[in-house]
Design goal:
By secondary structure, this protein is an alpha/beta fold. 37% of the residues lie in helices and 14% in strands. The chain contains 13 helices and twelve strands. The strands form three sheets. It has a seven-stranded mixed beta sheet with strand order 2-8-7-6-5-3-4, with helices on both faces. A three-stranded antiparallel beta sheet has the order 9-12-11. It has a two-stranded parallel ribbon with strand order 1-10. α3 packs parallel to α10 and α11 packs parallel to α13. The protein is globular and about 70 Å long. The protein starts with a helix and ends with a helix. The relative contact order is 0.17.
Length: 369
């Protein structure tokens, strides 16, 4: 399928006024998603919420393109407000023993680095290791490995399938935060085999803040206890005229981790985006995004930057003796949006960007440098 990227770009009105190269902070939400959200509120006005159970039917339909995007099944998908929620659910659902440990990569996103706040009371050891010594930190007492597929500051892309195999051979579970990758890069749970993949959809899934999804493998669902309970916990929760009282009987699907109500409207928007991405093709999207990222690296290197390829669509560059925070502020004043993270100037193009955006970035940086 040949994609008209100019037509794709037209879905994002803000790009008419901004050079937006900062999807690793926030994704731009397409018109079709905004319209899907608006349709939900129009439906509320018309129907006075009399059809609220139908909203859950629509939510189940959203599971379908989300699952297709990562080669899962709809039963594997639970909706979450953000990836922190997912990580807390996993940390709270494991039967920890004193002396167990959990492992993450050095310089991870704070979600992973703050894990001791959730498990310290169980006597769990927290291990933070650089990539060069990552596998050495994992042993037979490792219960959980929690990492991002793509590092938010450096753009380092972890080899998830390799890590998963190593973890499972030692009895450890693998939690992957795909917030900085899914939507831009292909992800196949059949080959990567994480136990959990959590995605807050507001970045590369170009959806509203406060909605996302969590894949939970069928095997892990057998042992991962839900630690959020609500009126939808019982498997017959749709029988609202006579809701079950007493201990709930849970479904086998990942829906059992959702608890209560869902962010309707926002979910309609995410479902519209997921269906669009499936239609465009994840492989085509990744090829587009990676080509744009390489174009960014080439342009920045012409200006003297150190901008290595770390295997992802996030470009982390350094200019010797130059404060990246100052560059980001001065670029913003020219309506060019990038970010500064941990000493790097971070440039993160998505499929809605084009080479003209990168040319404008290079020209502005040349003046500032």
């Amino acid at each position: 399928m040949t994609i008209d990227w100019t037509a794709v770009r037209a879905e994002f009105p803000s790009l008419q006024h901004w050079t937006y190269l900062n999807t690793a902070t926030y994704g731009q939400v397409p018109r079709r998603a905004v319209e899907a959200n608006a349709r939900h509120w129009a439906d509320r006005e018309e129907m006075a919420c009399s059809n609220f159970l139908e909203w859950y039917d629509k939510a189940d339909l959203v599971r379908v393109p989300v699952a297709r995007l990562i080669h899962a099944t709809p039963d594997d998908i639970a909706f979450i407000p953000n990836s922190s929620y997912a990580l807390g659910l996993v940390a709270g659902g494991i039967d920890w023993k004193s002396g167990d440990n959990l492992v993450t990569l050095a310089d991870e996103f704070p979600n992973q680095l703050y894990l001791p706040a959730l498990v310290d009371r169980f006597g769990v050891e927290f291990r933070e290791a650089p990539w060069e010594r990552f596998y050495d930190a994992i042993d037979q007492r490792t219960r959980l490995i929690a990492i991002s597929e793509v590092n938010y500051a450096t753009g380092f892309r972890a080899p998830i399938a390799e890590i998963s195999k190593f973890a499972h051979q030692r009895g450890a579970r693998l939690f992957v935060d795909g917030t900085q990758s899914v939507g831009a890069l292909e992800f196949d749970v059949r080959t990567a085999q994480p136990d959990v993949l959590a995605v807050h959809a507001y970045k590369w899934m170009i959806s509203p803040t406060g909605v996302g999804f969590m894949y939970v493998s069928p095997d892990f669902r057998k042992s991962l206890a839900p630690n959020v309970s609500g009126w939808r916990a019982h498997r017959d929760w749709r029988n609202v005229d006579n809701l079950h009282h007493g201990m709930p009987v849970l479904k086998d699907s990942a829906e059992k981790y959702e608890g209560g109500g869902l962010p309707f409207g926002f979910m309609d928007a995410m479902g519209e985006v997921a269906a669009w991405m499936v239609e465009l093709g994840p492989a085509q999207i990744e090829a587009r995004v990676m080509a744009l990222a390489q174009c960014v690296r080439d342009h920045l290197k012409k200006l003297g930057a150190d901008a290595p390829d770390r295997g992802s669509q996030i470009v982390a560059a350094q200019f010797a003796g130059v404060d990246p925070s100052r560059l980001a502020r001065e670029l913003k004043a020219q309506k060019i949006l990038v970010a500064a993270r941990h000493g790097f100037l971070r440039v993160s193009p998505h499929f809605y960007n084009n080479e003209a955006d990168i040319d404008r970035l290079e020209a502005a940086l040349a003046r500032l440098l």
